[in-house]
Amino acid sequence: MVGGLKRKHSDLEEEEEDEKWDWSPAGLRSYQQALLRISLDKVQRSLGPRAPSLRRHVLIHNTLQQLQAALCLTPAPPLPPEPLFLGEEDFSLSATIGSILRELETSMDETEPLQNPAAPPSPQNEVLPQPDPVFLEALSSRYLGDSGLDDFFLDIDTSTVEKEPAGAPPEPPHNLFCVPGSWEWNELDHIMEIILGS
Amino acid sequence: MIPGLGALTQDTLWCFSQVKGTVEVGATEADIISTVEFNHTGELLATGDKGGRVVIFQREQESKNQVHRRGEYNVYSTFQSHEPEFDYLKSLEIEEKINKIRWLPQQNAAYFLLSTNDKTVKLWKVSERDKRPEGYNLKDEEGRLRDPATITTLRVPVLRPMDLMVEATPRRVFANAHTYHINSISVNSDYETYMSADDLRINLWNFEITNQSFNIVDIKPANMEELTEVITAAEFHPHHCNTFVYSSSKGTIRLCDMRASALCDRHTKFFEEPEDPSNRSFFSEIISSISDVKFSHSGRYIMTRDYLTVKVWDLNMENRPIETYQVHDYLRSKLCSLYENDCIFDKFECVWNGSDSVIMTGSYNNFFRMFDRNTKRDVTLEASRENSKPRAILKPRKVCVGGKRRKDEISVDSLDFSKKILHTAWHPSENIIAVAATNNLYIFQDKVN
């Protein structure tokens, strides 16, 4: 259970329609951060010896896209020069999720007929499906932690989420989101390191 | 049929009848019941579990001596339907868990059912044997071949009575037709065909032909990265063999007519309720995902279950359901936690009673709910060992949402989310229900006055 989050969440849902709604910066940010952390964790954990549930995967993917849209309302701050980062366009979040779905498709390639099952499964470490190398590299790269969350959203394809739904919450103020060097930036940093380090 | 059958009036009291399954706390995961289904007469009740087994219960004949005691269900047959498999090419395990069982209508002395796991559908024949032939010419009593030189006379074997034996044999195996996980099977009203649905495709089979099937729905996009919606359930119309519905993870239902085209990619009807903007959240789509869809026995309505509600739709009205019932709306403020612990992905089923007047679905804490469509009354009952005295009347339960908790109420935070009732079944013509609570099967009946 996400302990202290419940109260903030229900606050949010009660006030969603209120035009004069006071976006408590800490509340919204920690809520969205938590959702993002939970979602990424689920995506990571869903790769295993069993064929993953496509329904669950698609629902989490769609939720992640909504989170991206919500967190992308401010333009990304200019990046610090980072030689390792040049040309690495694949490290956007949507591409990461996309590569997971590609991996799913590869693993479910329908041109391959089903093998005759006879022997029991091999030990765990021999049969784990290998995720897309691009994805693996994205996860393990330390500079993602250093550069912070906004680097994830560099190449987001926002065409699917461009239209604002009716009754969407008002746009949060600009100072709400991460500026490099701010304590929120470091906090997100820390969260990403936890995810990547696990 | 009992007059006023199924009406959830003040007079309807549900009583405990039986419970099947082990009592110990550490029951294995293989024993978890994954599907429950009565056959068309209600004489048989089948369950499937995570270990790939099917257990069929048969209702005993009602005895004249005990008119107040309705027939009990006793084990009739147990067999291993599916085994775990391993796909070496893709390095993936294929679970043996039985996702669905569907009975065929009885056409002779034997019973037939379809059972499916994620990949393979099987047709099982369950038949009785109470006689055996004796007096073979070429075999002795133990079945060993006799030396032909010793055979000097010819005789005709005779059938002699033996202890009743119920045997289950796999008659057909329908394999290699589903790339994704099968979530539904449905027998057509023509009794010659059935369909199987996975996340992205629906196939039509003829019972006699196992090496090919017709693909009738395919929603797989050319680029899997564009995938945003999957098929969650599908069912044939109970009377019109050309009509079926399928539901999606975005809360929509499509009704298709197989006469329109070979590939039913264009629906005949599209059922969707417009979203309520005041309830919008990051979880709106997940909780709108339909986990079950069922035609009414009359064929005039469909019922859908999403995470928080059950909805009844009139086939003639596509833009909104005619009835919406709140199953456990108190969970709406807990969605973030339920997302984190994965409960938000639980797939609850829903069922109609025989007269389509009452609908039932499960919830958490081993609670299940019934809604009377006519009187608009609803009740929450619990499947637990504590209420397991024979013919004990089930006391309605209540969840306390806020404020002061009354003595018999349970607060939302005390609910046990590991005790979920996903699968229930209602006898086709009587007020007898089967409720699967993890590894236990509860059978309840209404009180015979």
From TrEMBL, chain A:
The SERTA domain, residue ranges: 28-75
Pfam families assigned: SERTA
Superkingdom: Eukaryota
GO cellular component: nucleus
Coiled-coil blocks: none
GO biological process: negative regulation of cell growth; positive regulation of DNA-templated transcription
Protein name: SERTA domain containing 3
Native organism: Moschus moschiferus
Gene: SERTAD3
UniProtKB/TrEMBL annotation, chain B:
GO molecular function: protein phosphatase regulator activity
PROSITE patterns, per database record: PR55_1, PR55_2
Residue intervals passing through the bilayer: none
SUPFAM superfamilies assigned to the protein according to its UniProt record, in alphabetical order: WD40 repeat-like
Keywords: Repeat, WD repeat
Domain of life (superkingdom): Eukaryota
Identification of the protein by name: Serine/threonine-protein phosphatase 2A 55 kDa regulatory subunit B
Encoding gene, per UniProt annotation: PPP2R2B
